Amino acid sequence: MFETLKNLLITIFITSNNLTISKIKDNLPIIFIIPTTIGGIWQLFELSAFGISYIRFFSVPQLLPDGLLIISMFTVISIYLFYVTQVYENLKFEYYINKSFSKLTSILILNIIIAIGLIIFTLKTFKDFNTFTSFVLYIAILYFILRCILFIVQLIITISYKLKEKDVSQLDELIENVQKQDFHKPYVLMASLLYLASIIIITFFLIKPLRDFAYYPTNLENLTKLENELIKNFKLCEPPKLKYFNKDYLFYKFEIDNKERIYVIESKNLFLSPLEPMIKEKKESED
Predict the structure, then answer these.
(1) Are 47 and 57 in contact (CB under 8 A)?
(2) The model's pTM
(3) DSSP, residue by residue, the chain
(4) How far is CA 36 from its chain centroid?
(5) Whole-number CA gyration radius for the chain
(6) 142-185 pLDDT, tens per residue?
């Protein structure tokens, strides 16, 4: 993934001299199609979670902002992880087999200390994620710990091969075949499927917190005011849950008479002037 991103960036910078405003204008439809499509798919999933009939609340103006938001969030995460991978990039078995036992042992102990230290630091520091930056930093540290653990395993294998005086070049060849996706080798397909499965599982666990950062502003007073009105009008025992909102509608979920209800509000109600009730009350008193 990061190798692809690196190649893409290199291509952009190398061919930047040929990038003109006219070319950008000519390709504007294609540039906007990608985020719009991503935003549309996301919104369809969100609305269909309430029920197929709720797709009628589809908001066309929301497509581009949603798509750009998703692309921006994953770009930031990718950049963080890209820089983290540079620490353990291109570490081959063959390179370390030529080192002495004392050197290998010291490198192994150092990385074990780093891994344990980062695990303790992560458990103590990252309990609640109040900002998107802290969450991305948490992901980057976790990925760094994973790469560190893999490197520790690599060092242990290297030391055992060195003791047995075995050739490690075959191990490097195995890894290179997987990286090149040489499916003529049976183990490449299995390794690729395991890698794909791990990516899907990790993405599944990341989607919810990323979605929360995208949809639930914690300091928007308009939402607090609106939710207080809902509590008052429906006589709720607890605040209603904002499950989703777009440019046109807000979708709240709460229980009435032990039945789960969905309440849809037009987004424009978020931005009603706080002076309106006072003005209305004043007019009624004058009448």
Answers:
(1) yes
(2) 0.66
(3) -HHHHHHHHHHHHHTGGG--HHHHHHTHHHHHHHHHHHHHHHHHHHHHTT-GGGGGG--GGGHHHHHHHHHHHHHHHHHHHHHHHGGGTT--HHHHHTS-HHHHHHHHHHHHHHHHHHHHHHHHH-S---SHHHHHHHHHHHHHHHHHHHHHHHHHHHHHHHHHT---HHHHHHHHHHHTT-TTSHHHHHHHHHHHHHHHHHHHHHHHHHHHHHH--SS-HHHHHHHHHHHHHHT-SSPPEEEEE-SSEEEEEEEETTEEEEEEEEGGGGG--TTHHHHHHHHHHH-
(4) 18
(5) 27
(6) 888 888 888 888 888 888 877 777 766 667 666 666 666 666 66
As a whole number, the mean pLDDT across the chain is 76
50: nearest Cα among 196, 262, 286, 282: 262
Length of the chain in terms of residues written = 287
Between residues 53 and 90, which one has the greater pLDDT? 53
The pair of structure tokens assigned to 140 is: 């980057």
Q: Which two tokens stand for residue 6?
A: 């690196």
